[in-house]
Amino acid sequence: MTDMHLSDDCGGCPLIDNAPKNGRREFLRELGLAAAAVAALGATAGAMPVHMIKAIAERDEMVTYPFPSADGVYIDTKKEVIVARSAGQVYAFMLACPHQNTALRWNARDQKFQCPKHHSQYKPDGTFIDGRATRAMDRFALKHDGSNLIVNLDKVFEEDRDAAGWKGASVAA
Question: Mean pLDDT per segment of 10 residues, for the chain of length 173 residues?
Fold first, then answer.
């Protein structure tokens, strides 16, 4: 393996030309300014699509819920997770509708999820039924651990991008 060295003649590389000239201190100062800007724009970040916020956050977070003992739906608005048990399977979904990231609602009477914004509808397993959305609800990776359901908030499966992962993102009830 050979060592790679940067030459003084970088040909106008924007990364080198715009790099802090004063080393670590300057880097940390600029990092602090960037963090302050993000904090000041917190309300703006809240208006961003959910997938963009998650990409920025990189939370590396696992959440534990009691394993559902009966069919039904539990919605955790703080973590933006829907836990659903239906037809012998348990799922964990993103709270956001895949169409325009509006928080989904559970319609217990009709046994389906519905988006209040454009009225997309989904089966209890997250499968798309009707409306403006073009794909199923996004599923989180999950596992059954004794009396707990552990949901990995970093691993999201989109039906149209990873059909096999999406299909496998459930556990037997």
Answer: 44 47 62 61 49 52 95 96 97 95 95 94 97 95 97 96 96 96
Query: Topology of domain 62-172, per CATH?
Result: Rieske Iron-sulfur Protein (2.102.10)
Q: CATH 2.102.10.10 spans which residues of the chain?
A: 62-172
Among all chains, which residue has been given the structure tokens 């000239």? 21
Q: Whole-prediction pTM value?
A: 0.66
